[in-house]
Amino acid sequence: METKRLDTNQIMRQVIYALVLGVGAQIYFFGSSVIVQIILASITAIIAEAVFLQIRGVKIKPAIMDGSAILTAILLAISIPSIAPWWVVVLGVLFAIIFGKQIFGGLGNNPFNPAMLGYAFLLISYPVQMTQWPGEFISFSQGIDVIFGLNNVDGLTGATRLDDVKTQLMLGTQIRDINLESVSQLWINVGFLLGGIYLLLRRIIFWQIPFSLLLGLILMSAALFFIDPSQFTSPYFHLANGATMLAAFFIATDPVSASTTPRGRVIYGFFIGTLIVIIRVFGGYPDAVAFAVLLMNITVPLIDFYTQPKVFGK
Amino acid sequence: MSEFAFKGGLKLENPYPADEIDLIRIPLPDKVILPLQQRIGEQAKPIVGIGEHVLTGQVVATIDDERCAPVHASISGNVVAIDEQVMPHQSGLKALCITIESDGKDDWVDTSIGCTEHYELCTPETIYNKIRVSGIVGMGGAGFPTHTKVQLAEGCHTLLVNATECEPGITCDASLILAYSTKIIRGAEVLFHISRAERAIIAIEDDKPEAIALLKKYCNNDRISIEEIPTKYTSGAEKILVKSVLGIEIPSGKFASDVGVLCLNVGTVVAIFDAVVENRPLISRAVTVAGNAVKVPKNFQVRLGASYDYLLSFTDLEEGKHKVSMAGMMMGIELKGTNYSVTKNTNCIFVDMDEKSAPAKAKECIRCGLCNTVCPVDLLPQQLYWYSKGENIDKAVDYNLLDCIECGCCSYVCPSRIPLVNYYQFSKALYRQQVKEKEQTDKARSRFEFREMRLERNKRERAEMMEAKKKALKEKMASDKAQKDIIEAAVERVSSSKSDTEEQDGN
Amino acid sequence: MFDATSTLSLLALLFGLGLGYAAIRYRVEGNPLVDQIDAILPQTQCGQCDFPGCRPYAEAIASGEAEINQCPPGGQEGVDALAELLNIETMTLNEEHGEPEPKRVAVVDEDVCIGCTLCIQACPVDAFVGSSKVMTTVIAQECTGCDLCIPVCPVDCIEMVEIKPTVRNYIPDIAELAHV
Fold first, then answer.
1. Averaging pLDDT over each range in A61-65, B176-180, C90-94, which range is the top one?
2. Which residue from A284, A249, A260 is spatially nearest to A75, judged by alpha carbons?
3. Model confidence at C180: pLDDT above 80
4. Do residue C37 and residue C92 come from a single domain?
5. Would you say residue C175 lies in a domain?
6. Which of B87, B363, B447 sits opposite C126 (nearest CB)?
7. How far is A64 from chain C (nearest CA, A)?
8. Distance between the two ends of chain A, CA-based, in angstroms?
């Protein structure tokens, strides 16, 4: 097969296309308000990026056209609850673009995944808004109302299955008495999985990170599950809930902040997987992708240094 | 994986396929310009004067340096100039060249004296020397002096004839095989005679069935085998070829000769045959002319020193602004204009339409790691880029900068279109300069310190000498005084008796 | 309260001892400072710094008698490197001592030379070869381009020639490759 030649804009665009299925599932179950969030996030990202490029004295157009800012914005927008107030996503994107990316010198120079940095910032600062997910399908107008606070729309919110299970376990309920099923979460994850497979087939991402991340997640959750099935949920639950597939194929694979050596990628992905389970199970927040990814981002220089490939003839 | 596969590299179609890859012999050029600076070693010194008549194959410049190959007149005629001309090099710098105007006769020097087909009667030393005085260098593009290479590989066990093209789009080696397949086989036999190689392997890419068939047809020596290797770019790089064909990994910083392999390009083998058997020095070579401005890619057997313009006049070029580069799409060096001459390592001239091939502006590196996967020597190109860009040369060297073969695979796949190899060339050049400067400052320091020591020593010695002299003088004066006293006493006696005489004692 | 205070004090003491031990045990023996400074200096031995050579200047910097910005051949890069070594604020090159110039080499016009040997005595690195009343010449590889031979020559037969870049020592410009 002939070696293909990609370009950076194409990579960013393909990643955005691959998100369509997962986002579609979100829309199917919870309504189109996620689109509003995506639009809000994208506009904020472009403005923030343009202002900072101007300040840095870099040509604005080509840097914005690379699509990286919009990708960051979309990833953040689909990670936060689709009914979060408008200022949540705006603040998050501003934080992600300014402190996650531009302050380090723009695309390619950021040590942390900008979207996850924005997410972590929001989760710590606004835990209430960040954990109220729509409990049911929300129409477009209802979504607008909630996001912009036009009307007080009560009774729409609910917790995610991850959050719910966590609360129940804290109250002392046994796993077998908790409803673990969540059709919406399952299908959203399936959507992102299919998108991820598309990226793998198009060779936009390498197999190492998603594969080892899921492996780490399965092994860690399986270990806990075998120790005490009454206290810990099964690997399947971890795979089908939360942002697992989004993390495995779209977030951990952000090349800028991930490890770049083939062996390093395996280590990097594996530890994100295990950290996701550990933080989900033992941590204070319901989901763990952002923290797991950010923690592993810190270790990337070390991983890269120790996993250099053997050079020809050495 | 196939038998001869290697890690990394690029699978690329020939971007400029041609129905015919025959080697076209073109008429003699009216004028040739021969650069005296070769790839390695010092610049050769002209041994002919302006106005002098030279014969084809006559040595016009040479240098007393084992590593240097002499320069021969590639046509007969008059030397019209010995001056600085622009070199086909990215720097656009000038270097000394000899210009010869043709007399149209192509009169050769006497080629009857030499080893001829009875080369087996000549000692290996005679043949090494013949290769050296024939001015043969590596014809694959590297331009390393062949006699040195052959000598280094004296005790080698395998002769590897590199019949793979340097880069996609270049077909000059294939055309050479079609034209001179017997010379290649015979040339390998000459090399058997002067080395201890027991076998020869002619490695050729599997997309050249005609050339393979021809080689097989004329190969009647069972010590010579023809191996087909998969068509994949960088397979022709010496280190990669030795690894994929023989399974030997040449250690970092070493050469094929260090592992007992003599690896020569087909063009070089043909030149060795010409030099040893036909007594003709290297005065011409095969050059591919391709690119998107060239309607039909062609291969020419052309005299060295002929201008690019002359060569291009035999092709159909599309009208418009052209971009010319020496060597191909992967490792090519972009040149300004066509005012250059063909040198011993010009394997290809690419002429592209300027607007069609405007390079995309480079973007930031997103550390995607595609470059890692194509690097045939398993480097981490993005790390090298990072350190080269920051001029952190020591760190780049730590990341094995010096093992880079500058094949250009990383630049090709880079989605941000960063000219990675140019960065490595820059940091390699900077590294060489730093090493040289370090040597020079160390030398200056030790010479300064030695001088200080010498001056100090001189001062001390001088002081000691003065001391000794003073002492000697004192002693002398003391003894003088005793003598003086005697003299004075005598004078006294004399003067007392002879008071009208006055005497002076000078000493 | 007492427990906490004593525990922390004890810990502080223990760690302090540990650190103190490590500092002695794993002490890295560095070059004497003068050598380190001398290693940065360009070894031109030109004396533009007002010291009779690089080593004396290095000694003067080490003892605090001279500023780090008195070496034109080292250029601003040299000043910066010295500042980094000494861990002090960098300064701009003092132009009173001269401006950085491209590297040059002395060439003797051998027809004019009268063999006075004054240059031999002036050269800090013994790069001249010659003897009394015969023509003198320069070993180009040894010349540091310090200019000290120029003023002493009574017949002005020494010329400083800039070292031209050649194809061999050419360094490509990466500024041209820079991004959009």
1. B176-180
2. A249
3. no
4. yes
5. no
6. B447
7. 12
8. 30
Please state, in angstroms and rounded to a whole number, the distance separating the CA atoms of residues A252 and A279.
Answer: 16
**Residue B229 CB partners (closer than 8 Å, separation 6+):** B4, B164, B203, B204, B205, B206, B235, B241, B244, B245
- Residue pair B382/A260 in contact (Cβ under 8 Å)? The answer is yes
What is d(CA A94, CA A51) in angstroms, rounded to the nearest whole number? 11
- In terms of Cβ atoms closer than 10 Å to its own Cβ (0-12, 13-18, 19+), residue B71 is buried
Tell me, yes or no, whether C70 and C111 share the same domain: no
Residue C15 lies in a domain: yes
Q: What's the total number of domains in chain C?
A: 3
Minimal Cβ distance to B95: which of C53, C167, C169: C167
Going by C-alpha positions, the residue among B164, B154, B157, B147 that lies closest to residue B261 is B157
DSSP B418: -
**What size, in residues, is chain C?**
180
Residues of chain B with C-beta less than 8 angstroms from the C-beta of C54: 445, 448
Residue with the larger pLDDT of the pair B300 and A63: B300
Asked if residue B306 lies in contact with residue B29, where contact means CB atoms within 8 angstroms, the answer is yes
Beta strands, E only, B304-423: 322-326, 333-335, 348-353
Phi, psi (deg, nearest 5) at residue B158 = -135, 140
**Residue C178 near chain A (CB below 8 Å):** no
State whether A255 and B366 contact (CB < 8 Å).
Answer: yes
Tokens (6 digits) for B310: 């002359």
pLDDT in tens, B115-171: 888 888 888 888 888 898 899 998 877 778 898 888 888 888 999 999 998 888 889
Helix, strand and coil content of chain C, in percent to the nearest 5, comes to 40, 10, 55
3-state per-residue secondary structure call for chain A:
CCCCCCCHHHHHHHHHHHCHHHHHHHHHHHCCHHHHHHHHHHHHHHHHHHHHHHHHCCCHHHHHHCCHHHHHHHHHHHHCCCCCCHHHHHHHHHHHHHCCCHHHCCCCCCCCCHHHHHHHHHHHHCHHHHHCEECCCCCHHHHHHHHHCCCCCCCCEECCHHHHHHHHHHCCCCHHHCCCCCHHHHHHHHHHHHHHHHHHHCCCCCCHHHHHHHHHHHHHHHHHHHHCCCCCCCHHHHHHCCCHHHHHHHHCCCCCCCCCCHHHHHHHHHHHHHHHHHHHHHCCCCCCHHHHHHHHHHHHHHHHHHCCCCCCCC
Residue B217 lies in a domain: yes
Range of the domain at C37: 33-97
CATH number for the domain that contains residue C129: 3.30.70.20
Instruction: Give the domain extent around B387.
Output: 370-430
- Domain termination site, one of B382, B412, B430: B430
Residues A162/A241, Cβ–Cβ less than 8 Å: yes
Tokens 């020079």 locate to: B440
Q: Rounded to 10 degrees, what is the CA torsion of C106, C111, C115, C117? A: -10
**Partners of residue C168 in chain B, C-beta under 8 Å:** 37
pLDDT, tens digit, 9 for 90 and up, residues B251-283 = 998 888 899 999 999 999 999 999 999 999 999
What's the CATH code of the domain at B139? 3.40.50.11540
Using a CB-CB cut-off of 8 Å, the residues of chain C touching B445 are 38, 43, 54-55
Mean pLDDT (whole number) for A150-158: 68
Question: Do the domain assignments include residue B97?
Answer: no
A129-143 pLDDT, tens digit per residue, is 888 888 778 888 888
User: ipTM of the predicted structure?
Assistant: 0.86
On whether residue C179 sits in a domain, the answer given is: no
Residue C178 lies in a domain: no
Coil/strand/helix, residue B192: helix
Residue B256 lies in a domain: yes
Structure tokens at A170: 């804290």
How many domains are there within chain B?
2
